[in-house]
Amino acid sequence: xxxxxxxxxxxxxxxxxxxxxxxxxxxxxxxxxxxxxxxxxxxxxxxxxxxxxxxxxxxxxxxxxxxxxxxxxxxxxxxxxxxxxxxxxxxxxxxxxxxxxxxxxxxxxxxxxxxxxxxxxxxxxxxxxxxxxxxxxxxxxxxxxxxxxxxxxxxxxxxxxxxxxxxxxxxxxxxxxxxxxxxxxxxxxxxxxxxxxxxxxxxxxxxxxxxxxxxxxxxxxxxxxxxxxxxxxxxxxxxxxxxxxxxxxxxxxxxxxxxxxxxxxxxxxxxxxxxxxxxxxxxxxxxxxxxxxxxxxxxxxxxxxxxxxxxxxxxxxxxxxxxxxxxxxxxxxxxxxxxxxxxxxxxxxxxxxxxxxxxxxxxxxxxxxxxxxxxxxxxxxxxxxxxxxxxxxxxxxxxxxxxxxxxxxxxxxxxxxxxxxxxxxxxxxxxxxxxxxxxxxxxxxxxxxxxxxxxxxxxxxxxxxxxxxxxx
Length: 472
Description:
Number of helices: 10
Shape: globular
Mean pLDDT: 98
Helix content: 10-25%
Low-confidence stretches: none
Number of domains: 2
Distance between the termini: 58 Å
Structural class: alpha+beta
């Protein structure tokens, strides 16, 4: 394989490219989908290929091939160079990559139990046992639907480039999703949730047999039967870690992507309220810092080198309430004069590396949940969300609570129904006056690009307290 990749690099350079990159990318996935007591589908998928990226006279070219034959790979190189050559005559501003000390390394995630030891039969048994526990819950509501999806994946990459980069990586992951629907007295409610992490098949039992769904089944029943109308107006709010993680991802991570800041995403996913000159601008309270860190062991967004072979590191997007750093690849790193911070990722062999988040979270501080609650005379504890929305510039936020409680005189009281928090990103971060100490991560698949690329991520944080925000 290495011989083919290096041959591709040499071919591109011989055709006049100033930069050449070849990436072998293999993805394997196996899974089971269940609805209540029925298995409604199984998956067994494999995607492999070689991606070629070149720079020719300041223009970027990309091509890929399913074939691993040397002849077909070299044809892909010719296509990439041809594209770049044709584009080069129209380039007003040349593509230039920042100079980086690139990695020469092999990275492999350790599996306590081999990922592919998890058979289809074992996955079916786990899902059916989960259904038995859910349907046996002592609740008043009916459970018409309990959807589950359990799968494992293996991602193997070899990246070489003409600037000296060489990275070979292996990351196995386990994914589990459930959607629980309950019905009572003409009303229905649902909760969906996703678990995912890098590691071995030992994660499957942790997610399916010991997951939060066995608490959620009782919570949903109580919401249907006991939740009271939510108060409205300006009040203090405590947000649970699930919403805090989403807030960090959507209102810090996405607007900090340098390509989005430059307008590249404008026609697909929108712009950013952050401008190229916003570094050093205050966005929130001094106690708030937002981090993106792909190096967290066991995380869903784990990597030690990005797909340009740049070493990954922890990045403070917001630091002590100030916009501190953007997510960069080598191109935007050159434009901003900051260099890359290892944020380029590709979904598969048929996608080009673009700027992506990894594991994005609000950094914890020193308050317990009880301490956050006890200083509120009247407000809401919004523990989880039912739905959310954010505008195209990542400034206007809307979060609708699912499990939410009234707070009176520093104590959690009754469940309240679907409180709606609506505020700007600046208002939310500026109104945070206390940050919890218990950091919790949640899994997701982040979508970006055209054609769309979905990559595994975590988002998280501790509970936070926000003063005098609007509840609709």
